[in-house]
Write a structure and sequence with these properties.
CATH superfamily: Dihydrofolate Reductase, subunit A
Radius of gyration: 17 Å
CATH class: Alpha Beta
Shape: globular
Bound molecules: NADP nicotinamide-adenine-dinucleotide phosphate
Order of helices and strands: EHEHEEHHEHEHEEE
Number of strands: 9
Amino acid sequence: MKPYVILNAAMTLDGKIATENGSSNISGEEDLKRVHELRKECDAIMVGIGTVMADDPRLTVHKVDANPDDNPLRVVVDSKCRTPIDARITNEDAKTVIAVANEYKDDFLKSEKYQTFKNRGVKFFFSGSEHVDLVSLMNYLHEEGIEKLMLEGGATLNFSMIKSGLIDEIRICIAPMVVGGEKAKTFFDGEGFPVMDLAARLELVDSYSLGKDLILTYKVLK
Ligand SMILES: NC(=O)c1ccc[n+]([C@@H]2O[C@H](COP(=O)([O-])OP(=O)(O)OC[C@H]3O[C@@H](n4cnc5c(N)ncnc54)[C@H](OP(=O)(O)O)[C@@H]3O)[C@@H](O)[C@H]2O)c1
């Protein structure tokens, strides 16, 4: 069993979710409100360590009316537990789980960082050998009562999640901007599928304009 997973992101018309330098303020004000309403509806929000390093996100609900109970559980996929000690995602505004790979477990459990995070209430889930096993992570989160999970990137984790068949729905904000850059992160990076026949198949279920942006909702066909 696993939570229902909604991948939400904002990209430029050319499919970039950040510039080469990591700048990623793409959504208009209206879209940011939509994102925070969606966060409020979800039981958990998950990101990869690349996003934590690039953006230092809080992943709380703060752009719409909300109280502390509206903050979903925050989940970081971080094999080596590189999450910085002062990362905002580990603050006391909401609960946090960091998923770490087994290969790094023993050393990590002996580290000062582990004690600091533990004292702050951060929890850990260990799975996979070199990288976090996403299927086990989804099972664990479901067992912990997470029914609806919002995946908020980045490019590498998005691809691993879709390749593993773990995404149910995609909501994408397309901003009327073009940024280019062959090293700029796209909506899905990772190793990619080798041939089109293997591409993940989607069905468009909704589309509308929001301010200057375009919002598309897709179901992922299984
Ligand atoms: N515009 C948007 O909507 C949006 C949203 C989010 C992020 N972003 C942007 O995306 C960029 C970050 O993307 P990113 O691709 O560098 O990083 P990412 O997808 O956030 O994190 C990827 C990292 O997660 C770790 N990981 C552990 N187990 C994994 C697994 N099974 N599968 C995949 N990853 C696993 C890996 O690092 P370890 O091996 O060290 O664990 C991997 O390098 C930032 O520039 C950010 O601004 C944009």
